[in-house]
Design the sequence.
């Protein structure tokens, strides 16, 4: 069997000259990121390839920093919020676990996303638009654009958020309290590749 580089052959097979595609110069050119002719012209193909790679890395890092990273800009309502109270048509509503339609937690996250979790643990997903001048949020159903609403928001302090608006024919006032993300298991306990003991039972 012949070597693709040197053209040497074992005793069992007849010698034949190496193919032009397998000459060392062309292999070196391929490793530089271009053809042999490109390598002979100064390795321009490899240089362009490296620049493209660096630009791709910078693009990914820029997107992470500006959109989803821990230092990305956050909306005024960003965070995890637990429902403290609901007033419907000027009447306070009891927060009953048996009320499957009652929202218990609201999450305003990155990428203009919002989720509403009910007492039955069903989730409604929305696209979020925040107008910090008018102090309004617009929620549009991610899978049903017709399912939308606009609500006003106020922040009495950093730990509380109040949403006011109409849902259908009902006037709602939803009082929310900020959930401390440091209580989340992944944050408080850290990431572990190996868990020898059954922690999540």
Sequence:
């Amino acid at each position: 069997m012949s070597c693709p580089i040197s053209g040497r052959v074992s005793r069992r097979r007849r010698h034949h000259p190496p193919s032009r595609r397998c000459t060392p110069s062309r292999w070196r050119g391929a490793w530089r990121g271009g053809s042999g002719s490109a390598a002979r012209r100064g390795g321009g193909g490899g240089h362009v390839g490296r620049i493209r790679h660096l630009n791709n890395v910078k693009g990914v890092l820029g997107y992470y920093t500006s959109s989803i990273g821990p230092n990305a800009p956050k909306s005024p309502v960003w965070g995890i919020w637990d429902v403290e109270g609901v007033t419907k048509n000027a009447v306070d509503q009891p927060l009953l676990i048996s009320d499957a339609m009652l929202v218990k937690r609201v999450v305003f996250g990155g990428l203009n996303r919002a989720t509403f979790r009910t007492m039955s643990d069903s989730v409604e997903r929305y696209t979020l638009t925040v107008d910090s001048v008018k102090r309004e949020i617009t929620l549009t159903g991610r899978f049903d654009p017709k399912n939308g609403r606009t609500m006003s928001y106020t922040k009495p302090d950093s730990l509380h958020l109040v949403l006011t608006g109409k849902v259908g024919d009902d006037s709602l006032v939803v009082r929310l309290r900020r959930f401390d993300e440091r209580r989340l298991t992944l944050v408080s306990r850290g990431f572990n590749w190996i868990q020898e003991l059954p922690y999540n039972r």
